[in-house]
C-alpha cells in the first residue's frame, strides 16, 4: 500500500530516468484515472515538453512539464504504481497511462482504478489538486511533532494518519511507529508525557528512515508489518497474540502487552 516511502521511491525513479527527457507520445488505457484532462488533451499538452524535477509532498508526486508549463500530479491510493522501462519494450493494457519519452516509458498503473494522474494547467497551484496538507513527514522535527499533537483531540493513530496534520504517513507506517514506541493507537494524542513523545519521535524517524531506504515499509521478522498477513499474528518482540481492530476506519494491529490501552 503506497505510503511516503513508496512515493519517495517513485520520485527517485523519475529523477533518475525521466527528468530532462522529452515526451514523444502519451498512451492512455484507463481514461477514468485521468483528472483535469482527457486522453487527447493530455497528449496535446504533454507531447514535445520536457519532464522536470519531480517533487514529493506527502503521498503526492508532482512533475512539471517544461519550465513554467503544466504539472502532472500522481496519486497512488491503495494500488497505484509507477514504472520505468527501457524504450525497447512496448506499453500494454496494464499501463493505465504511459508516457513515451526519448529513452523509455514512464507508466502509471493501478490495479483497482484508484488514484490517478491529475493534470494542472500552468499557473495552477498544487494545493488546488491535493487539498490542504500538513508538513511532509520526512521534514517534521521533534518540536513540531509535539506541537502538532498537542493541538489534537482524539487518538494518536487518527492524528498521525490525518494528512492535514502530517503528510505522508499511512496505515502500515503508523501501526509500526506506535508499536515500536509502546503506545496504544487510541491514546489521546494531546496527553503524551515528555519521555513518551521523545520515544515516539525517535521511532518515527527510524521507521521512516529505514522504510525510505527500502522503498516501502519493510516486513522482515523484526517488523510488525510482517504480521499483518498472518492468520495468527504475534508480537515480534514479546510473542503475545497481537490485537486487531478498526481505528479510524482502518485495520489496526497492536501488542496488548506492550501497548496498554488508555484508562
Ligand atoms: Zn509485544
Describe the structure.
The protein is an alpha+beta fold and about 260 residues long. About 30% of the residues lie in helices and about 25% in strands. A five-stranded mixed beta sheet has the order 2-9-5-4-3. The chain has a four-stranded antiparallel beta sheet with strand order 1-7-8-6, with helices on one face. The longest helix is centred in the last third of the chain and has 21 residues, at about 195-215. The two termini are about 30 Å apart. The structure holds zinc ion. Zinc ion binds next to loops. Zinc ion binds near residues 235, 237, 238 and 258.
Q: Could you give a short description of this structure?
A:
29% of the residues lie in helices and 23% in strands. It has helices at 4-18, 39-46, 126-130, 142-150, 156-161, 171-181, 194-214, and strands at residues 23-28, 34-35, 51-57, 60-65, 71-75, 80-86, 97-101, 104-110, 116-120, 243-247, 250-254. Zinc ion is lined by residues 235, 237-238, 240, 255, 257-258.
N- to C-terminal distance: 32 Å
Q: Mean pLDDT score, rounded?
A: 94
The hetero molecules present are: zinc ion
Report on the biggest sheet.
Answer: 5 strands, mixed
Using the CA coordinates, give the radius of gyration.
20 Å
* Widest β-sheet, arrangement of strands: 2-9-5-4-3
Specify the helix fraction band: 25-40%
- Treating each run of at least 4 consecutive H or I residues as one helix, how many helices? 7
Listing every helix as H and every strand as E from the N terminus to the C terminus, the arrangement reads: HEEHEEEEEEEHHHHHEE
Low-confidence stretches: none
Structure summary, number of beta strands: 11
Indicate the overall shape. Answer: elongated
How much of the residues is beta strand, in percent? 15-25%
Question: Structural class of the secondary elements?
Answer: alpha+beta
Amino acid at each position: 500500500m503506497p505510503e511516503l516511502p513508496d512515493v519517495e521511491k517513485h520520485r527517485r525513479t523519475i529523477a533518475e530516468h525521466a527528468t530532462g527527457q522529452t515526451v514523444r507520445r502519451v498512451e492512455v488505457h484507463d481514461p477514468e484515472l485521468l483528472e483535469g484532462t482527457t486522453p487527447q488533451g493530455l497528449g496535446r499538452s504533454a507531447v514535445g515538453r520536457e519532464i522536470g524535477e519531480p517533487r514529493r509532498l506527502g503521498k503526492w508526486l508532482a512533475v512539471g512539464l517544461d519550465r513554467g508549463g503544466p504539472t502532472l500530479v500522481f496519486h497512488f491510493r491503495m494500488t497505484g504504481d509507477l514504472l520505468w522501462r527501457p524504450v525497447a519494450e512496448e506499453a500494454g493494457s496494464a499501463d493505465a497511462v504511459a508516457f513515451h519519452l526519448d529513452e523509455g516509458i514512464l507508466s502509471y498503473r493501478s490495479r483497482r482504478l484508484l488514484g490517478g494522474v491529475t493534470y494542472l494547467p500552468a499557473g495552477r497551484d498544487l494545493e488546488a489538486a491535493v487539498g490542504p496538507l500538513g508538513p511532509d513527514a520526512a521534514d517534521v522535527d521533534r518540536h513540531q511533532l509535539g506541537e502538532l499533537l498537542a493541538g489534537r483531540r482524539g487518538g494518536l493513530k487518527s492524528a498521525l494518519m490525518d494528512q492535514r496534520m502530517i503528510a505522508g504517513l499511512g496505515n502500515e507506517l503508523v501501526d509500526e511507529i506506535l508499536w515500536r514506541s509502546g503506545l496504544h493507537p487510541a491514546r489521546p494524542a494531546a496527553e503524551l508525557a515528555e519521555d513518551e513523545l521523545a520515544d515516539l519521535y525517535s521511532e518515527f524517524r527510524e521507521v521512516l528512515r529505514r522504510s525510505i531506504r527500502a522503498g516501502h515499509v519493510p516486513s522482515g521478522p523484526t517488523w510488525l508489518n510482517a504480521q499483518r498477513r498472518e492468520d495468527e499474528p504475534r508480537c515480534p518482540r514479546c510473542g503475545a497474540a497481537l490485537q486487531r481492530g478498526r481505528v479510524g476506519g482502518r485495520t489496526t494491529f497492536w501488542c496488548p502487552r506492550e501497548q496498554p490501552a488508555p484508562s
